[in-house]
Every structure is written in C-alpha cells, then in structure tokens.
Amino acid sequence: MSSTVFLGNLPTWVTADDIKAWLVSDNLVADSVKVIRNPETQESKGFAFIEAPNEEEMNLIIRRFDRAPLEERLLRANPAQPPRAKGLAPRPMGAGAPAGPAGAAAPNGDRERNRRGGKKHRKSGVSPQSAFAEELAKAL
Known about the structure:
The protein has five helices and six strands. It is of the alpha+beta class. The chain has a domain at 4-79: RRM (RNA recognition motif) domain (Alpha-Beta Plaits, 2-Layer Sandwich), CATH 3.30.70. The radius of gyration is 23 Å and the shape is globular.
C-alpha cells in the first residue's frame, strides 16, 4: 500500500518548502513533497502530495493536517488515490452511443422517451433521485 498523503484546499501561495517546514515543526517525516502546479501558469492548483516513509507516518501526517485551519479554510488530508490511466476513465451510463450492437438504433419508443427525459421526468417535472438519496430522505 502506498504511503502518500493528498493535502488539499491549500492557498495558492503555499510551496513545498512551506509544507516541509510545517512537517519539521511537528516532528513529522516526509520523503518528498510535491505541490501540483498548472503547467502553463506555474500557479499552484491548491493541492499537494506528501510521500511518507511508511503507513504509520502517513497516518500521523493525515491526523495533523486534516481539517487544520489555514486562512479561513480547512485543509483536507487523506490517503492519496492511485493515479488513473489517461483516456481509460469509465463513461457514465447513457453517455455516447446507445447500448447494444454498434450502429443499432434504439426502438422508436425508447428514442422518443430518452429525448424527452423519460416518463418519470415528464409527469413529475422533478429529476429522479438516486436510491441512496431516497434512503437518506427516509432516514431524516
């Protein structure tokens, strides 16, 4: 398992040296710190990755920085997610071509319903909620 920390919601003025100084002042250890910048403008994108030497140190860094206040904002720190391969992100259902064999058109009724948002959209005028949202509404 990786021991990289994602540190987000940073002001744009924060540098890797600033983060290293904060770590040192709290007796925390990091192998490397990388503030992510816009390649064209070199301005910070507001987040960084901290490579910790082990999982225990990673958890200490997360506990120290997650929800820590800085300039009227709360920092976010959590384990970094592995990078996604470019161009291989899954497409949401309904995006692009219709399901089924390539070039096959949806039956006329389905095409008409999809264009107008389906029966549920036409009758209620309200977009459908996810199952999670419905369960949450019942619980509240």
